[in-house]
Design brief:
Elements: E1 7-10, H1 20-34, E2 41-44, E3 54-57, E4 60-65, E5 68-70, E6 73-75, H2 79-89, E7 94-98, H3 103-115, E8 119-122, H4 130-133, H5 137-150, H6 153-156, E9 160-163, H7 166-175, E10 182-184, H8 198-204, E11 210-216, H9 225-238, E12 243-249, H10 263-273, E13 280-284, H11 288-297, E14 300-303, H12 312-319, E15 324-326, H13 332-335, E16 342-344, H14 349-357, H15 362-379, H16 382-397
Parallel strand pairs: 1-2, 1-7, 2-4, 7-8, 8-9, 9-10, 11-12, 11-14, 12-13, 14-15, 15-16
Antiparallel strand pairs: 3-4, 5-6
Amino acid sequence: MIASMKVARVIETFLPNITGPVNQAYKISLELEKKNISSPVFTTYYNVKNVPDEEFINLVSVKRLAYARIMQYCISPGLGKALEESNAKKKIDIIHAHTYRSYQTEQGYQFAKKHKIPFVLSTHGSLLGYDKFLKNKLVKMPYLVYDSLKRKLPAIDADAVVVNSKSEYEDAIKFGVDKKKIHIIPVGIDTSLYEKTAEEKLIQKKDKNKISLLSVARISRNRNLELLIKAVKILKEKYPNKNIELNIIGKEIVNSGTDRTGYIGELKKLSKMLGVDERISFRGEMKGDDLIRYYKNADIFVYTSLYENFGQPFLEAAAAGLPIISTHVGIALEIIKEGETGYFIEYNTKDVCDKIALLFNRKKREEFGKKLQMIVKQKYDWNIIIKKYCALYNSLLNK
């Protein structure tokens, strides 16, 4: 590792606002700081309250800037100056931006070009993800206009583009990124946090007829949760001896400025109309030990999304030893081995019900879960992932 390296990270929002990109950005900076590599974060006040302009979150230096919001676009005019001031104190060696179509990414790119230093972009599904869940051409127009105005430069002209999965790799190539610049580095996870204790395993064995389904994600219309709710109704009727429950965890978000709000309310109405509201619980946003407890107490993880570029909950479920049932999205494509670690589902209720029923057998669930735990430990543990980032940064500075 090159001595005294400084990797400045730019991102639209940051902790305590929790999103997939935020968690990833924070963890990369934290692990770099543990290796005595400076990795300050430059962000905005978007979606956070009662936090200081500057602070340390553990070892990570965070500077927040005032912003103006236009639909999904978050402008922070002070970012350029903040980067220059940081650079004057200690030279910035690399700019690493998180998500495309972001003012912060644009400013990071301009700074890198001005100072002739490497620019890295982590896409987090932001290149062509919109095309998967926005079907109306008019709604897609802001994305297309942005790409036209910016000539896709923050992505096309980046020195390195980091994608989290093979499907995101294909999106980057389709977008026009030179495949030589694309690096597949998955999201990492601390697997030790999700392992069950002997006491927790004992508690789970008490009710043999209880099947606890779990779905975790930021909730938006492309999650297609109606499919899962309808499946619970059919399972309730078809298997009256089974005590089937569903916990849905996550806060509601919108994926674009044109999305309608009120999705969770609609799902609750559907649950009541189908007579399964007593079986389905909407738990809201959960973090830390509270969230991990639900993973440990669940039997099957189910994901019905129309699109996902990666899907951190897949890793969390796998680390907790849960078999996974999912649509063909995100990292599920790489960790689900059909009939060995889980099952893929199509977008129809019967298929969802059939696959869930295949996992009513506790022994099979445990076998699937153990295999998933092994996959996650070998490929996605943070100790492995951070080595890949260090290797990438070194390669850019050694060119």
